[in-house]
Amino acid sequence: MKLKELLLTTEVTVPSVVADENVTMITLDSRKVSPGSLFVAIKGFSSDGHSFIQKALDAGAVAVVTERSVSGIDPTLILVNKAGDNRELLSRISAVFFSSPWKEMKTVGITGTNGKTSTAHILRWIMEKRGIQTGIMGTVGHIAGGKEIPASVTTPDSLDVARYMRLMVDSGDRSCVMEVSSHALALCRVKSVRFDVTLFTNISQDHLDFHSTMEEYLNSKKKIFSLTKQDGVKIVGTYSPGWPLVKDAITFGERAGDTYRIRNISVELSGSSFLLCTEDGEFPVTVQAPGRFNVYNAAGAIAAAVQLGVSIEEAVQAVRSFSGVPGRMERVNCGQKYLVAVDYAHTPDALERVLKQGSLLAENKLIVVFGCGGDRDNRKRPLMGRIAVDNADLVFVTSDNPRTEDPSAIITDILAGIQEKYNPVVEQDRATAIRSAINAAAEGDVVIIAGKGHEDYQILGVEKVHFDDREQARIALADMGYTCAL
């Protein structure tokens, strides 16, 4: 594509000397530049792409789009974005370069503090069972054309969003389900994308290190509704406090006025069931994944599937065979007579939800192992400490992903929310904490290992080291004499 065509809808003036240059790829990473690339310089949180302009040109970039004037470099190769926001520009030109693939398939964008991953995977399951090949982008990984793509963030940058969606279309996917994070909405990663269905699960405290206030956080989340296609549908979950009033939205929850009303919830170790009431009738729903939250996730997914043309009967039938998402109340079963489950819960609301669910399943003690991430919102740490001791019988406070923070300082923040009358076990080494919790369990107990879920690593400093809660639980159980596949 010619450079002038790529930048036609932007506020960038393209010098005639480079206007007809053929752009073969776009990148915001100077290390990925090759001859024919257009390099978009973005000021990030830890580095500034403007520092690597010469490196990009030396590697063969046809030009560089900058957010400000740059001296000492051939001015015909420096294209200044007068609007000054290269994140938004990247979103626009990515759409042009990859021919807006969201126009060629049904698309669903799911946001919310909790439940995005499970809702997305249940919806994809329904679509696939209906014979509709469906791609997905989200926390536990992306899938395009049936092939898995590792994920480092929930929603990738706008360039990769457009690239993966184009790959989906070209690989035969007829629909795409995408988890949309608040970061993605705030940083223009999906600003050019349009969705047939936008779905809001819930809102609770998280990411206040980035958004500063809950109001700012909620406003970022609500941006997803502006991305709904003209004939698209907005869906809002009303089962959790703080849900937004959205004009013309359909709703799901336990209120009498909800479009999809949930009633008669039953939760057991083997799964969950409920009655979904609509204007078309009442439909009994069962899902193999345990946990009350999976009731809400399944209801949201069914509502979205119906809006995409799947009959509610077909959606309900498909949900019956859905067995769960990796790291979401995922059972570790080696034949022991108590439940060990790994869950991604890493916010106050999510931890409270999973512990309340665990208490319903426990015949005796509820045991929890958890920590908090470093370089993230430290205000939620004491809240999570209080929630843990308020809901569990035995609490192990440990390390999560400390990143560049001192793990003991993070634990101190957690303990600040725990009154002296409680006596949590503090064990900084996560593997030892998991082992100790499992060793403390007896028949009828429930052990919840919270915070990391599907992750198979810990971030220590700036380094990722292999660590998998499920693997550590199996090792502990195997050492106790149970038969576990390691």
Strand order of the largest sheet: 6-9-5-10-11-12-13-14-15
Spans of 5+ residues with little confidence (pLDDT < 50)? none
Going by CATH, the architecture of the largest domain would be 3-Layer(aba) Sandwich
What's the total count of β strands? 23
Distance between the termini: 50 Å
**The top level CATH class name of the largest domain:** Alpha Beta
Find the structural class using helix and strand composition.
alpha/beta
Rg calculated over all Cα atoms: 24 Å
Could you say which overall geometry the principal axes of the C-alpha atoms support?
A: globular
Oligomerization category of the chains in this entry: single chain
Q: For this structure, what is the CATH homologous superfamily of the largest domain?
A: Mur-like, catalytic domain
Number of helices: 16
Sheet with most strands: 9 strands, mixed
| Binned strand content | 15-25%
**Tally of discrete structural domains:** 3
Average of per-residue pLDDT values: 93
**Percent helix range:** 25-40%
The CATH topology of the largest domain is given as UDP-N-acetylmuramoyl-L-alanine:D-glutamate ligase
